[in-house]
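Whiteboard transcription, Tuesday session. T.W. wrote the C-alpha coordinates on the left side:
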Protein backbone atom coordinates (compact mmCIF):
# COMPACT_ATOMS: atom_id res chain seq x y z
CA UNK A 1 0.00 0.00 0.00
CA UNK A 2 2.78 2.45 0.94
CA UNK A 3 5.91 2.49 -1.13
CA UNK A 4 9.44 2.73 0.25
CA UNK A 5 9.52 6.49 -0.49
CA UNK A 6 6.44 7.17 1.65
CA UNK A 7 7.82 5.15 4.55
CA UNK A 8 11.21 6.90 4.25
CA UNK A 9 9.51 10.32 4.19
CA UNK A 10 7.46 9.43 7.29
CA UNK A 11 10.62 8.34 9.12
CA UNK A 12 12.33 11.62 8.20
CA UNK A 13 9.37 13.64 9.50
CA UNK A 14 9.40 11.73 12.81
CA UNK A 15 13.18 12.12 13.23
CA UNK A 16 12.95 15.83 12.38
CA UNK A 17 10.24 16.32 14.98
CA UNK A 18 12.27 14.49 17.64
CA UNK A 19 15.33 16.61 16.84
CA UNK A 20 13.29 19.82 17.04
CA UNK A 21 11.80 18.85 20.42
CA UNK A 22 15.26 17.96 21.80
CA UNK A 23 16.68 21.27 20.57
CA UNK A 24 13.81 23.28 22.07
CA UNK A 25 14.14 21.45 25.40
CA UNK A 26 17.90 22.10 25.54
CA UNK A 27 17.36 25.79 24.73
CA UNK A 28 14.75 26.07 27.49
CA UNK A 29 17.16 24.51 30.00
CA UNK A 30 19.93 26.92 28.98
CA UNK A 31 17.54 29.86 29.36
CA UNK A 32 16.44 28.69 32.83
CA UNK A 33 20.02 28.35 34.10
CA UNK A 34 21.83 31.47 35.31
CA UNK A 35 24.21 33.10 32.85
CA UNK A 36 27.10 32.35 35.18
CA UNK A 37 27.80 29.89 37.92
CA UNK A 38 30.41 32.07 39.61
CA UNK A 39 31.11 30.74 43.10
CA UNK A 40 33.18 33.71 44.25
CA UNK A 41 32.00 37.13 45.29
CA UNK A 42 29.78 38.64 47.94
CA UNK A 43 26.82 36.64 49.13
CA UNK A 44 24.20 35.62 48.91
CA UNK A 45 25.15 33.75 45.76
CA UNK A 46 22.60 32.69 43.13
CA UNK A 47 23.65 29.29 41.82
CA UNK A 48 20.22 28.02 40.81
CA UNK A 49 20.47 25.15 38.35
CA UNK A 50 24.29 25.15 38.32
CA UNK A 51 26.25 21.94 37.90
CA UNK A 52 28.71 22.21 40.79
CA UNK A 53 29.79 18.58 40.87
CA UNK A 54 33.53 18.57 41.46
CA UNK A 55 33.68 22.36 41.98
CA UNK A 56 35.99 23.70 44.71
CA UNK A 57 33.55 25.32 47.13
CA UNK A 58 36.07 25.89 49.94
CA UNK A 59 36.03 29.68 49.64
CA UNK A 60 32.43 30.14 48.48
CA UNK A 61 30.16 32.05 50.87
CA UNK A 62 27.10 29.80 50.90
CA UNK A 63 25.19 31.52 53.73
CA UNK A 64 21.68 32.24 52.34
CA UNK A 65 22.84 31.12 48.87
CA UNK A 66 20.24 30.00 46.35
CA UNK A 67 21.03 26.54 45.01
CA UNK A 68 17.57 25.62 43.72
CA UNK A 69 17.90 22.60 41.43
CA UNK A 70 21.72 22.71 41.56
CA UNK A 71 23.84 19.58 41.11
CA UNK A 72 26.13 19.07 44.13
CA UNK A 73 26.49 15.30 44.15
CA UNK A 74 29.45 14.28 46.31
CA UNK A 75 30.18 17.87 47.38
CA UNK A 76 32.64 18.33 50.25
CA UNK A 77 30.76 20.70 52.57
CA UNK A 78 31.71 19.35 56.00
CA UNK A 79 31.68 21.92 58.83
CA UNK A 80 30.48 24.62 56.38
CA UNK A 81 28.12 27.45 57.27
CA UNK A 82 25.06 26.91 55.08
CA UNK A 83 22.53 28.75 57.24
CA UNK A 84 19.44 29.82 55.32
CA UNK A 85 20.55 28.17 52.07
CA UNK A 86 17.74 27.46 49.59
CA UNK A 87 18.57 24.11 48.01
CA UNK A 88 15.03 23.02 47.20
CA UNK A 89 15.13 20.28 44.59
CA UNK A 90 18.94 20.25 44.58
CA UNK A 91 20.90 17.03 44.20
CA UNK A 92 23.32 16.47 47.09
CA UNK A 93 23.51 12.69 46.78
CA UNK A 94 26.58 11.38 48.57
CA UNK A 95 27.51 14.85 49.81
CA UNK A 96 29.78 15.23 52.83
CA UNK A 97 27.79 17.54 55.15
CA UNK A 98 29.01 16.33 58.55
CA UNK A 99 29.07 19.16 61.06
CA UNK A 100 27.49 21.59 58.57
CA UNK A 101 25.27 24.37 59.92
CA UNK A 102 22.04 24.08 57.93
CA UNK A 103 19.84 26.04 60.36
CA UNK A 104 16.80 27.33 58.48
CA UNK A 105 17.87 25.66 55.24
CA UNK A 106 15.24 25.03 52.56
CA UNK A 107 15.86 21.43 51.45
CA UNK A 108 12.35 20.55 50.31
CA UNK A 109 12.50 17.80 47.69
CA UNK A 110 16.31 17.72 47.79
CA UNK A 111 18.15 14.49 46.97
CA UNK A 112 20.39 13.80 49.98
CA UNK A 113 20.52 10.07 49.35
CA UNK A 114 23.62 8.52 50.93
CA UNK A 115 24.85 11.86 52.28
CA UNK A 116 26.76 12.23 55.54
CA UNK A 117 24.94 14.60 57.90
CA UNK A 118 26.58 13.39 61.12
CA UNK A 119 26.49 16.18 63.68
CA UNK A 120 24.84 18.60 61.24
CA UNK A 121 22.66 21.40 62.61
CA UNK A 122 19.25 21.20 60.96
CA UNK A 123 17.20 23.36 63.35
CA UNK A 124 14.34 24.95 61.44
CA UNK A 125 15.37 23.22 58.21
CA UNK A 126 12.65 22.20 55.78
CA UNK A 127 13.25 18.58 54.74
CA UNK A 128 9.75 17.92 53.40
CA UNK A 129 9.80 15.32 50.62
CA UNK A 130 13.62 15.13 50.79
CA UNK A 131 15.30 11.86 49.87
CA UNK A 132 17.42 10.89 52.88
CA UNK A 133 17.63 7.19 52.10
CA UNK A 134 20.85 5.62 53.39
CA UNK A 135 22.03 8.95 54.83
CA UNK A 136 23.84 9.22 58.15
CA UNK A 137 22.02 11.59 60.51
CA UNK A 138 23.71 10.38 63.71
CA UNK A 139 24.18 13.22 66.22
CA UNK A 140 22.37 15.63 63.87
CA UNK A 141 20.29 18.32 65.61
CA UNK A 142 16.73 17.70 64.36
CA UNK A 143 14.96 19.18 67.39
CA UNK A 144 11.30 19.89 66.79
CA UNK A 145 10.89 17.70 63.73
CA UNK A 146 7.37 18.26 62.39
CA UNK A 147 6.71 20.64 65.30
CA UNK A 148 7.82 23.90 63.73
CA UNK A 149 11.50 22.95 63.66
CA UNK A 150 13.01 20.70 61.04
CA UNK A 151 10.09 19.37 59.01
CA UNK A 152 10.39 15.78 57.83
CA UNK A 153 6.90 15.39 56.34
CA UNK A 154 7.09 13.05 53.36
CA UNK A 155 10.86 12.59 53.64
CA UNK A 156 12.16 9.21 52.50
CA UNK A 157 14.21 7.72 55.34
CA UNK A 158 14.71 4.07 54.34
CA UNK A 159 18.05 2.86 55.68
CA UNK A 160 18.93 6.25 57.19
CA UNK A 161 20.87 6.29 60.47
CA UNK A 162 18.78 8.56 62.69
CA UNK A 163 19.75 10.33 65.93
CA UNK A 164 18.83 8.39 69.07
CA UNK A 165 15.23 9.12 70.05
CA UNK A 166 14.49 11.28 67.00
CA UNK A 167 11.70 9.09 65.66
CA UNK A 168 9.82 8.76 68.93
CA UNK A 169 10.62 12.04 70.66
CA UNK A 170 11.01 14.97 68.24
CA UNK A 171 11.97 17.28 71.11
CA UNK A 172 14.70 14.98 72.41
CA UNK A 173 17.32 17.62 71.70
CA UNK A 174 15.30 20.72 72.62
CA UNK A 175 18.47 22.52 73.74
CA UNK A 176 20.75 23.22 70.80
CA UNK A 177 23.94 21.25 70.60
CA UNK A 178 26.91 23.52 71.41
CA UNK A 179 28.14 23.23 67.82
CA UNK A 180 24.76 24.54 66.59
CA UNK A 181 24.85 27.74 68.57
CA UNK A 182 25.25 30.73 66.30
CA UNK A 183 28.04 33.07 67.25
CA UNK A 184 28.51 36.21 65.24
CA UNK A 185 26.63 36.77 61.98
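and on the right, the sequence the group agreed on:
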Amino acid sequence: MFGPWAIGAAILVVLGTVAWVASATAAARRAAAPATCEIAGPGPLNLDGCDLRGADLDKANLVRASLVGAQLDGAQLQNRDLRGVNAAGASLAGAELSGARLNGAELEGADLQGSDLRGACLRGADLRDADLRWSNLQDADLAGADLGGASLTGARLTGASMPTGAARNPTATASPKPSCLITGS
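Someone added at the bottom: The chain has two domains: 1-32, 40-185.
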